Amino acid sequence: xxxxxxxxxxxxxxxxxxxxxxxxxxxxxxxxxxxxxxxxxxxxxxxxxxxxxxxxxxxxxxxxxxxxxxxxxxxxxxxxxxxxxxxxxxxxxxxxxxxxxxxxxxxxxxxxxxxxxxxxxxxxxxxxxxxxxxxxxxxxxxxxxxxxxxxxxxxxxxxxxxxxxxxxxxxxxxxxxxxxxxxx
Length: 184
Hints:
Distance between the termini: 22 Å
Number of strands: 15
Number of helices: 1
């Protein structure tokens, strides 16, 4: 959460896959509470929390492989609604993040569908969409070509509190399987 007092995470629920849980930090004792399931953000499909805007009003998550947004109502999160079809009909969508102001969405994507024997498709790159740039609410996904390197992939996008985009990429030369990069 923006104030650092709550942590959203995905945990196995034993029957239907992953659900969204929340823990709260007890600053007096310096301990986190036991995880509690967030019912409104959990479905019978796999549910993965991704990011919350700086003002704490929008929550980006994946439900059954589709990107969804929940907004904070009077006292709690509301039932999530789907992102535009332009992203949810993309051949493959992985992890995603919202900018701190909620106006930019960056996600892992591939123009290839994954094959039955693959965990993920090949050629994964980062794509972005901007809020309010079309009559459908979000612009069409565009590859962030300035971050691409031929033969490499960009993964795990995350906006920091400084509004910079952090991600992992496999480039040459490298220090290992993937290095952390920042784009300002």
